[in-house]
């Protein structure tokens, strides 16, 4: 004999199964739909970013070959160099945008999927808000570093290979990250500088720099002859292919920098390509020295007043440095 209760349980069991299956199918379809839409948005967004980066790079292509024989075209050359740097900056910004796109799209997709699976995301969102506030107060310095690094990359304040002065150190940039910048100073020491602590940047590698040599000559020297020697040296350097690749113009006699009872200090200037200021200045001094010797122009011996440190070693007053040749 079959009871009525047994009949009822047998009837409701299949109905419960089919309801569960229908609910599961609906949830699975919703999850797949969310994943599909997120994937489509990710694909479209990534393609838009890539195209934007390509257009940015294409707009910065320059006519380097056409400017190679016009070293006096400083403005045009500076635009060319900045355009070349724009390509590196465009790729860096593109990577940042793609990372942000992934975080935004898939973070939202995960929250929607959790909701479809019946997970209450309100406590998760509340916890995330509390954690976010705590991190905001506790990691202000870290956030400052990342924001500063982002704007440094976007604004192209400096890049790898640039020689920069960031206040604490002067050196060559080896790596630019969002949080820190790695520099190597002239002595070979590696410095890690937090981007949030960089308040100013002096970049010696963007566009062009000025090579300057201040040289003392005898007080009795004929300045017209000195000017002529500088002009001849400038023409020789400009005609030398090895030297010319560092220059953006012929060295010029800038004038008298200072006058003392022992010497007249002349200043010679030359526009140098980016990162070529130091080698061009050294080459300029060497050639001027040789030309002065050939023309009999004397570079006088400058006497310096001496003081003494507590150990009795002669020093130059005002600097505290040992007098040259005295240790």
Explain what this protein looks like in three dimensions.
The protein starts with a helix and ends in a 12-residue tail after the last strand. Strand 3 and strand 4 (190-194) form a beta hairpin. The strands form 3 sheets. It has a 5-stranded antiparallel sheet with strand order 4-3-2-1-5. It folds into 3 domains: 11-119; 156-203, SH3 type barrels (Roll), CATH 2.30.30; 209-295, Alpha-Beta Plaits. Helix 1 (4-59) packs antiparallel against helix 3. The chain has helices at residues 4-59, 64-67, 74-116, 122-138, 140-155, 223-239, 241-244, 277-295; strands spanning 163-165, 170-176, 180-184, 190-194, 202-203, 208-218, 252-259, 263-273, 307-308, 314-315. It contains 8 helices and 10 strands. By secondary structure, it is of the alpha+beta class.
In brief, what are we looking at here?
This protein has helices at residues 4-59, 64-67, 74-116, 122-138, 140-155, 223-239, 241-244, 277-295, and strands at 163-165, 170-176, 180-184, 190-194, 202-203, 208-218, 252-259, 263-273, 307-308, 314-315. With 327 residues, it is of the alpha+beta class.
